[in-house]
Amino acid sequence: MAEASTLGSTISKHFLKCIICSDAFSDPRALPCLHPFCCECLEHWAKSCSNDNSIVSCPLCKKTYRIPEEEGIKGFPVHFLVTNLKDTVGKAKQKTASTNHCENHKGKELEYFCENCGCAACSDCGILDPAHKDHSFIQLKEASKQQSSSLDNLTRRVGIVKEKYTTAIQETQQVKQNLDRNINAKIQAIDEARNEHMQQVDNLVRAYKQNVYNKREENTRAIEQIEEKLQVDLATLRSSTELASNVIESGSDSDIISLYPSLSSSLQQICESQPTPVGWDSSNLGQIKLEPPQPTSVDLPSLEQLICSKLHITNTSSQCIQVSHQTRKLLMKPVDAANFIPPETANHFSRQDHLKSTDMPETSQGPNFRLFSKFRSTTSTKHSTQPSAGKKWKECGQIKTTPECKFPTGIVIHHNGDIVLTSRIAPVTVFSKNGNFKHVIKGSPSNIADIAISPSNQYIIPGEYGKNEFYIYDSEGVLVSTTSTYDVIYQTSSPKTVAVDSTGRIIVGLGCDDHKSMSIHQPDGTLILEHETKSSPRFLTCTPDDNLIIAFDDDTLQVMDQLGYNARIIKPPPGIKSWQPQNVCCSKQGELFVGNGGFPKAVYRYVYKGGKYKYLDCITTMDYTPDGIALSADDQELFVVDYCLHLVKIFK
Q1: Average pLDDT for 327-343
Q2: Which residues, listed in sequence order, are joined to residue 383 by a DSSP beta bridge?
Q3: Residue 255 and residue 391: Cα distance in Å, rounded?
Q4: pLDDT digits 0-9 by tens, 301-318
Q5: pTM of the entire predicted model
């Protein structure tokens, strides 16, 4: 019996104590990893793991789990194994204390085991107790040995079942991984179908536009010929009328008699003439009648047909892709035929020109820029936005910040010319194109290096280091939402860079010690998908066709789609000593501007030719790393931030 007591003490010491409070379990709760903890202890522990009490990490294995929203920690299941074991040990201790001796024969020690009744007995039970008449008895130690062997066999069988469960869990995890890969492949196929459909729509729109332009030129020539003839006829009419008037006023009687036949005949013809020539049809020349562009036999597939083809789905008149409302809204919006705008006239939004004017009055209060040299307005619309591959960029001005906004770290230019700066020591600050202070985005973090503006005029700002979140502010600088980048919090996570594509989707690059990845979010911040990267994204921006240009911490510059596929390396300029791309900016025509933090420190320009980005020229060299690059709305001015000199250089 001493052995049973020792076993109970061992179990209580090693299996029935909470690791957090070191006391016996009280209302034990099981995390998904099956580690038990007191409910109250787990509640206190969760508060130290997350400010919003939505995440708890296991104190033993460090795995992170979401807390049930409705019930909180009590939503985790009761750990029945601990509860049952606790009850069993308690009952065993009570039984051990009270049953060392036979209850029927006081003073007699329990030495035997009745195989018929399945209980312990003393030496007098088989002789004096009628309840054990003709029963079979064995030594208590022998019975304990047999039952221990039986329990051992059952434990081994449970071990085999446990291995089966483990294998089943591994197979389930493999199925989940296969599902993720399959989903990613399907999304890629859908995006490919979208791009193909957009290209076909572009081609068709160009063909119709060319048809319109040809008809306009043809009708314009005909109208000009008619106008020219009318002008000649009008000149003749005026000449004849003036001659007749002069003869009447100044001519002699003989002049009138002699010129009357010819003048009267000429004026009579003019009176009977019509200003509109024969065959004139204003309805035909004033309107354009179009015909389908050649060849007319081309049958463009619909977007749904393309998606079905990419996904290998049979598409008939009664069968098509069935997707949820949110998925259809996400996939169809960029290429909706009713809302499609051809590339020639589309207002492609980018990091530099998303925000519309807030019409805020300019004021001289607050921080101000000081203009070192004059330069032309950044919002001029008189310049062509066509690529200027053969033209050189030249410095045309500088803007120096005041002490309130020293150490600028990032920049974005509003399409109305407003200058938005991030700073080492100040929150995000908005200035007018003339350098006058407009407003500060209150509560926005300092010491960040990137910011983006959405098509709906919202500021997208990454969180400070160690905060797994980014912020969405409206055009007035009022906080709209704080959004977590991922479902699982990594303690060292740090969103480094953000970008917004033409549809308003938000792309966040996150770098930390244990997780390097990107996440794609809907315009309201809802997570769409995430995927890991081999290196931390240092800076990223979107191209006009919504691909991503990413500068990684391993000093590579790559272009890829938003799923991370089709990645291609952008080669460094020839002849430089070290290549450390820090910042990236892309024009509406796809020209690329890259700030190098290596040597020489400079801003380099690339053009997109033959499906690749090719180095063209060096815009400027600097003494310090260019910490921010942005283009004006018309792509005519380039703004380069110099962190150490506290100024912004402007190139045209």
Answers
A1: 37
A2: none
A3: 71
A4: 677 777 777 666 765 433
A5: 0.45
